[in-house]
Amino acid sequence: MVQKMEINVMPVIGAVCCYCILLLYLGKKFCYYLDFFLSIVIGTVLLTLAPQFIKTQVEVRVDGVHLFMVRAFGIMLLGSAYLWWNVRNSKDITVHTTLMWARVMGGAAALLAQGFAQFNKASRMTQEHLYISVLLTVLWTLGNLIYCMRCTEWGGYMETRSKLNNFLHTDFVITLIFGIMFYAYPVWLLRVQTSLPRLNVVHAHLYRLFGSALMSSAIISGRASNFLIASDKRIQLYTRVLINVGLIILFLVTYFSTAKHNDWSVPNTPFVLGVVGVWTLNAFCGSYSLAYFKN
């Protein structure tokens, strides 16, 4: 354990300083598209190469729940990339600052989870986790934070009267509650959702990471009711539908896989299909509701 914590911080500090200078030089637009690119690449890696990736990060026997949560986090990243791409040309300044602040808050929550997993006494994380996952989260979060703090135009208009707002508010509440549950009560959820004979710190860590992604997404839904343009509001609901459908498909494939079928408890199936189905239905109905209008 002591050996894990003997870290040469100078290269890390140097990399962070160079990164900050580079971002300040290249500008906000570069930072925006860098975030989009990272979401695509990392999301694809987590979704398609989950076994290979997680084996470099942890020192436990990898099971189906580990792989599912890694892939689920990848789906969340790909969903966020879809959102960032579709609002890249938005004329509403509230949209881009909202996305960046959501990334900062989600990244900060993820860093707390990663730090706890890396340095607590029962840690089963590798040095690769520190130098790849943790450092990448630091740089990713820092890049968005720099431009959030430098922003002089915050937007934040009063809510425009829109039928979309009710669906966005509902999505915000549901997403935030799930995010808090995954982040604050991972062990309880694991005992309800899985039938594993033994849980380890990696299970709880991956649940917290997923919770941080949900809370980040909830911030966008909560703020989206202040967007001026209807298409920007709708794209958040479209994104929720795509993410949730992806998660349901992932769960069904995982559940009916012969090798991983016994990892999930019987009550978990109606929970996922029922609750997530209602959550998705709200976003779907909102996506096709009547166009927004102003007084």
Automatic annotation (TrEMBL):
Keyword annotations of the record: Membrane, Transmembrane, Transmembrane helix
| Membrane-spanning ranges | 6-26, 33-54, 66-87, 99-117, 129-147, 167-185, 205-229, 241-259, 271-293
Q: What is this protein called?
A: Uncharacterized protein
Q: From what organism does this protein derive?
A: Octopus bimaculoides (California two-spotted octopus)
Source organism lineage? Eukaryota, Metazoa, Spiralia, Lophotrochozoa, Mollusca
